[in-house]
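Sample 1 of the test manifest.
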Amino acid sequence: MALDQIVDGLSEVSCDVLVIGGGTAGPMAALKAKLKNPKANVVLLEKANVKRSGAISMGMDGLNNAVIPGYATPEQYTKEITIANDGIVDQKAVYKYAQNCYSIIEELDSFGIRFLKNENGDYAVKKVHHIGTYVLPMPNGETVKKALYRQLRRARILISNRYMATRLLKSADGRIAGAVSVNTRTAEMLVIKAKAVILCMGAAGRLGLPTSGYMFGTYENAANSGDGYAMAYHAGAALANLECFQINPLIKDYNGPACAYVAGPFGAYTANNEGSRFIECDYWSGQMMLEFYNELLSGKGPVFLQLKHLHPDTISEIESTLHKVERPTRGLFQQGRGVDYRSESIEMHISEIGFCSGHSASGVFVDDNARTTVPGLYAAGDMASVPHNYMLGAFTNGSVAGIDAMEFADSHDFAEFDVADVAVERDRVMAPTKREDGIPPNQIEYKTRRLVNDYLQPPKVTRKYELGMRRLAEAREDMQERMIARNAHELLRALEVQSIMDCADMAAHASLYREESRWGLYHWRTDFPEKDNENWFCHTLLSKRDGKMTSEKRAVEPYVVPIADDEKDLYDKQRIRATA
Amino acid sequence: MPLASFQTSVPVVVDDAKCIADKGCTVCVDVCPLDVLRISDMTNKAYMAYDECWYCMPCEADCPTGAVTVNIPYLLR
Ligand SMILES: Cc1cc2nc3c(=O)[nH]c(=O)nc-3n(C[C@H](O)[C@H](O)[C@H](O)COP(=O)(O)OP(=O)(O)OC[C@H]3O[C@@H](n4cnc5c(N)ncnc54)[C@H](O)[C@@H]3O)c2cc1C
Ligand code: SF4
Ligand code: SF4
């Protein structure tokens, strides 16, 4: 059979809880749902293969946000995340995470994932953040996926690999009814009816174009093309604070973390070309990213991660982590360039833009039970709005979502969707395969993402945004009328471009709506350069209403943990003061 | 508009002498998050069919015979 030949087909299955995305949050959500009701059917649908999918495909070097008794308190963590987010936080969900995450660490430990301990057998947590101590190294971090997979098999979760979800189905009264998906190797379509659906499709990581020009050289796992954001949008769910972009400091060109969280606790630091420090704290916040950006452009760039002053044994220890887990090709990359950390610093740069709550705060709106605004629809991990969630947040909130979704499924019957909706979706999905002639998805994707870089990347200028939106609309027309896919693999990419285009439109719309500057570089609007707490101390919610993109304000919920006036701007003071 | 094919030097290389795809192995094809590896109809060995690689390594790490080598994609090398 010819490579990835297109097969015409449509089948339907049903389950109690459908989890979409088997990276980090998804496996935990599926596991918890199944343990909650072992008699129920739980399906875990994954675009790639659950064994090696998602941000943690090669494991992780540590937990970035562990709240461990004796080192940090839930109150302290909630305060830190609130301040790092310029106050725009519904603390209830953050506080709940902070309370629950320790028991998830213990559970992961029982799965065989080890965390660094000191001589006394206590967790050896390191300080990276401004205020508290939350970073916990994982000495056998490469085993995370294997350990999770064992649990899924044991619990008899039904895993469907190589199925890409494309749209959600709802009933006339607005409840979730299931999802449509397509096999990425045959283009056969599969409709999954479900009583509850949990979205765990990761960040929108293929929005901006990496400076290397290589489309798949993204910070995020390049399979995370923002499908979850697009699906939630088309299902009418609200998305929160999308203008709070994700931008990260990374190894230049390689585009992966260096990683200051690993090396920082050993004494490494970020420096300019004079060898001087210029930021107070390496924790990734928008304020820190603004200082990084300013330094790059100031004539004092490039910016480096400085290690060479450390003892050779220490450097070897850092190397053994950086070159073994998470992004193991870091070693190969440095070797290719002849960079030895003992004699040379690591050149750093900033990443392309994306949406991600795992590192920032742009995600599908969820409450503290991981519920979206659509009944029966849940979201967890990088694509859900709980800010600065990272890996442990994906596990912890995935767990919350799994349990709550199963309770929902246990108390509801299947909602009925309109079969006409499936036919419409089938036509949309297959359209690029029906054309004889046209533009391949890679060209439309390149152009879209190049426009995102040219027009939407901060600093955000209103006039540039208006032009960018016009250019994007032209590219959208090409995508809708002229894109071709000659086999199932190209169809996968063609569907991903449609998510990327939707995310670009949402990024532009959300950014123009918030008429102030906030979150440092993430939302720096040159036409509104000041923070405006009087009018904009609020979330923004974007959603599809009557077929149109709309934005509205949503008040920040009253704090659970009060923040004193003199603490509010701690993260605004990222630049090291010049001393005489 | 007619299409032209585009030359690209792919980052992932398979050593045909070591690859046992002809004996039924598909491990690297199965695990790749970007789904860019295939078994060739002509040689019955694994190869990189699409230059869309996250240089992440599961293909190399999981290959039972050590046949896969992941290189850094040329554009960012
Ligand atoms: C390079 C890197 C380093 C990091 N380092 C750390 C660290 O040291 N410590 C830390 O705590 N955190 C770290 N993080 C963050 C952490 O890894 C993430 O926050 C977390 O793993 C996100 O989990 P997730 O489940 O939301 O997404 P993912 O784990 O990325 O999973 C998303 C899944 O959805 C699938 N998917 C996407 N679209 C579809 C679709 N249409 N249909 C079906 N499936 C789909 C994808 O294939 C993928 O498997 C890092 C992230 C990256 C990228
Ligand atoms: S995993 Fe190794 S042996 Fe198996 S098909 Fe791939 S290259 Fe060949
Ligand atoms: S390095 Fe990753 S993306 Fe590239 S072929 Fe191997 S598994 Fe696939």
